[in-house]
Amino acid sequence: MGFPSDLEIARKATAKPLTEIAAQMGIGAEFLEPYGKSLAKISLNAIDSLKSRPKAKYVVVTAITPTPLGEGKTTTTVGLGQAMKHIGKKATISLRQPSMGPTFGIKGGAAGGGYSQVIPMELLNLHLTGDFHAVTAAHNLLSAMVDNHLHQGNELDLDMNNITWRRVMDVNDRSLRNLIIGLGTKEDGVVRQTGFDITAASEVMAILALATSKEDMRARFARIVVGYDSNGKPVTAEQLSGAGSMAVIMGEAIKPNLLQTIENTPVIVHAGPFGNIAHGNSSIVGD
């Protein structure tokens, strides 16, 4: 008999109610916002409820030699978290959310492997609670506001050849890396060159991972530089009146997601900035 696949192992795991998983971290059921039976958001109010507890030991698992199939950071992290339970220690695992682009590419999913996995594996790799879609929408809203500003007369004198804010989507599609937009009639916008990046490369994603509160996130959005004017002066999201709308879109995404391992160790999954073009960390809020 061959060794079972990751999917077979994940589907045979027995999940515990998320209220029991949260209780292992000292988080009450009142701070959970269920997304179906196997996922939940954690209210930011839970942070204040934990302030009186002693600080935990923090173990960072990282890697510097990427391969087409990944390095094994998640598998190692999940294994360590589960092992702590076997030696009588309490552990909570904090991970980045996988990008769907690599999930459908050669790399595949990012829920761990074998008996060192996060469940539900399928939901973790595909959409989860929609945070990546919120990042995509917030990012592309600002992109639309840049082009609308150009269409309405370009009061901020944005240099058409020095606009750095592109668009994003959470799919690998090399044909969209460089393109021309605004073709058609005059009402279809200003013709210029731009392109798409993957959502995990968005500055909105990087900010989500660094923000400590909704207020902090909104302030960071305000400082985003979308390009430069004809004098080389940076133009920001705040000048385009985009930061507030972006923060509204991201209102639910800033709440961490609660899952569990196949051995029922708590797992917080939140944000997913790429490590090769950003800081590559799970979120400050989640940690």
Largest sheet: 7 strands, mixed
Topology pattern, helix = H, strand = E? HHEEHHEHEEHHEEEEEHHEEHEE
Helical coverage, percent range: 25-40%
Tally of helical segments: 10
Q: What is the molecular shape?
A: globular
- Unreliable parts: none
Gap between N and C termini, in Å? 40 Å
CATH topology of the largest domain: Rossmann fold
CATH architectural type of the largest domain: 3-Layer(aba) Sandwich
Strand content is: 15-25%
| Rg, nearest Å | 21 Å
The helix-and-strand class reads alpha+beta
Topology:
Layout: H1 6-12, H2 18-24, E1 32-35, E2 39-42, H3 45-49, H4 73-86, E3 93-95, H5 100-103, E4 112-113, E5 116-119, H6 121-125, H7 131-151, E6 158-163, E7 167-169, E8 179-181, E9 192-194, E10 196-198, H8 203-210, H9 214-222, E11 225-229, E12 234-236, H10 243-249, E13 257-261, E14 266-269
Parallel strand pairs: 3-14, 7-10
Antiparallel strand pairs: 1-2, 2-13, 4-5, 5-13, 6-11, 8-9, 11-12, 13-14
Helix pairs in contact: 7-8, 7-10, 9-10
